[in-house]
Design a protein that fits this description.
Mean pLDDT: 80
Distance between the termini: 7 Å
Number of helices: 14
Number of strands: 0
Low-confidence stretches: none
Radius of gyration: 24 Å
Order of helices and strands: HHHHHHHHHHHHHH
CATH superfamily of the largest domain: MetI-like
CATH topology of the largest domain: MetI-like fold
Helix content: over 70%
CATH architecture of the largest domain: Orthogonal Bundle
Structural class: mainly alpha
Length: about 325
């Protein structure tokens, strides 16, 4: 197991580096907009002297390979500035604040929101999917499948906008305008995070209901399940100890791989509910073409995805004892 984990971690390094290279090329080569042009447009200036001064101050005057090497931290080994390899993501081009200090407060918020959203999706999908499988071709099955399709068709952000609009008009309700961190006010923090977390988990739960139902139907037809019933085991023991455990492997794969997407997708809900997470930070940086911030956030998302896939692969051995990594 340790050898397998080490191999996967070593293979993840070039994957993450490739993601950063593609992001860097997209921002600096393929994107038609330029941060220098944007800043000069704010000052209504077009002179070359100001352009050269801004490029030098923002560290954009050297060649692209050298800029990437400085951001990555490779240039540090021959006297250049510190970079990602030294734990320094750089500074924002607009306010000069260290990116790492911003992310220390924002990353936990987005992770918490995404994890709660995924947990709410599982809490809804697991029992409903099992119930639909046990009542196949009966009215609960038809109703739950229709519900799953309906949930898939309803974008969570659209439901959030409706909730805010009609909640304020009909029930005089609105989310808090001031964000409270968990360590400052736990009760207020849970109240702020609960509604967006439920809405984030709404859309994924539709697909998970159908997936859990399909996998449970497949497992319930296996010979070992019939044998367990024939041996006189209680129905709940057969259902939860044998059937559900084996049906979880595809579900764990979908949840694990989709978790970084859920975390990244919190951007809309952070904007709607005024939550200071990575999503709002990313939107602001994209509007300003803040290259270091965009690169840093994409690096974090790539690392989260790689770690999620690795954790999913490792969890297979704990879910199904027949699976071994050798």
């Amino acid at each position: 197991m340790q050898t397998y984990i080490l191999q996967r971690l070593l293979l993840a390094i070039p994957t993450v580096i490739l993601v950063t290279i593609l992001t860097f090329l997209f921002l600096r080569v393929f994107l038609p907009a330029n941060v220098i042009d944007q800043i000069m447009g704010e000052y209504a200036r077009t002179d070359l002297e100001l352009r050269a001064k801004l490029e030098k101050e923002l560290g954009l005057s050297s060649g692209l390979p050298n800029q990437y090497a400085e951001w990555l931290g490779v240039a540090w080994f021959w006297g250049g500035p510190e970079g990602v390899l030294q734990g320094n993501l750089g500074e924002s081009l607009y306010n000069g604040k260290p990116i790492m200090s911003e992310l220390i407060h924002r990353v936990p918020v987005s992770l918490e929101l995404g994890l709660w959203g995924q947990f709410s999706a599982l809490a809804l999908a697991m029992p409903l999917g099992v119930w639909a499988a046990l009542r196949q071709d009966h009215w609960p099955d038809y109703g739950l499948r229709s519900l799953a399709i309906l949930i898939n068709a309803l974008p969570g952000f659209w439901v959030a906008v409706l909730l805010l609009t009609f909640g304020s008009l009909w029930f005089d309700w609105a989310p808090p305008l001031r964000f409270e961190y968990l360590w400052d006010d736990p009760v207020a923090h849970v109240g702020i995070m609960l509604t967006p977390a439920l809405l984030i988990g709404l859309t994924p739960s539709g697909g998970l209901i159908r997936l859990v139902r399909t996998q449970m139907l497949e497992v319930l037809r296996q010979d070992y399940v019939r044998t367990a019933y024939a041996k006189g085991l209680a129905s709940h023991a057969v259902l939860y100890r044998h059937a559900l455990r084996n049906a979880l492997i595809p579900v764990v794969t979908v949840v694990g791989v989709g978790l970084p997407n859920v975390i990244a997708g919190t951007v809309i809900f952070e904007q709607i509910f005024l939550i200071p997470g990575m999503g709002r930070y990313l939107v602001t940086s994209v509007d300003n073409l803040d290259y270091p911030v965009i690169l840093g956030l994409n690096l974090i998302f790539a690392v989260l995805l790689v770690l999620a896939v690795l954790i999913v692969d490792i969890s297979y051995a704990f879910i199904d004892p027949r699976i071994r990594f050798s």
